[in-house]
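Thread: Newbie trying to understand structure tokens

Hi all, I'm a second-year student working on a class project, and my supervisor (Dr. K.) asked me to get a predicted structure for one chain before our next meeting. I've only ever worked with sequences, so writing a 3D structure as a token string is new to me. If someone could post the tokens and maybe explain what I'm looking at, I'd be very grateful. Here's the chain:
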Amino acid sequence: MKRALAGLGLAAALLSSCAAQGPARIDVLFAGGSYNADQSRMTGQAHVLKLTPRHALHATPLVFVPGQGQTIANFLGTPDGREGWAMDFLRRGFTVYLMDQPGRGASGYDVAYGPAERQGPLVLEQRFTAPETFEAAPGMAYGWPQAVRHSQWPGTGLPGDPAFDQFFASQVGYVSGSVSAVLVAEAGAALLDRIGPAVVVTHSQSGPFGWGIGELRPKLVRAIVAVEPSGPPFASAPRPWGDGDPEAVSKPYGLTVTPLTYEPALNNPADLVRVWEPSENPELTGCWLQGGTPRRLAHLAPAPVLVLTAEASYHAGYDHCTAAYLSQAGVQTEFVRMEDWGLHGNGHMVMLEKNSAAISGRIADWLEAAQRPDGEPVLQ
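---
Reply by user tm_fold:
Sure, no problem. This is what the structure looks like when written as tokens:
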């Protein structure tokens, strides 16, 4: 009888453990947005999926913002059928908010946003899923030296492969230009106004939008995890072999197209002095940094930043510039190359690749150990 009862107890414990793996509650909300002049439409709103763990260990939630052409599907599952980052962080006791950028996904597109763009399969192959199969070509945004190390995509990375086809099927049209920067920052700020302090997790194109949210709500952003944020400073082109072209300024505020608060005050972005720091490493680009006495990024400085870069990504050649710029501007920044964490072979879409769970685990470790400049832990 005792053995039978013990067996029943073990079965109950296993069932309880399995049940605890899923979210205790799923909520849908919309953050931000406003009616147009004739009250016929709403624009600027962001669709947000909230996942609450059964046993929350952290009062501070995570807000995820996907990158260009992507939706929150990136964090819900992988194209080869594995569980996504959302489930990984739920298991670590985090409440998770997944935000579709305004103008895409369940947030909805409106003609008021302007023309939409889409990424074709060749772009995905070159930059994300099979960069190791392409050779460098003059003027083309692929063929970076680190690409040969790419090994973590689940499949061939080419059309016809099931994982690639699932990934391409997930791609959506997106608002182009600086419109996205304003829409996402304002929607993100509205979300934090509603939910309170949070950690903002960005990827790729949404990297500068995370700086924008921090600018608008410096007291509500506990930390920023920037996974391969769009960069480098003052530019957007993925060119690890960049030559420091002084005319290639697409981010006039250094990290963004939208205003950032500097100290001393910056009345005109043209007054932001730039100097080119060349690189002696053939795999790394030089960096544009501030010249003279650096101005401080006053609204970003209260929150620590993790800049995370994959070994084989096109970002491997220049994300160090973004981290250096943040540090120079007084932001507590940790720059981590994933290979230094023992995570090798990753391309740009790290949350979808074969070792995605290991990556999310290391990010969770970092968040649980991180402290803010005032000495408080990031998580509460």
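A couple of things are worth pointing out once you decode it. The first helix runs from residue 2 to 20. The radius of gyration is 21 Å. Feel free to ask follow-ups in this thread.
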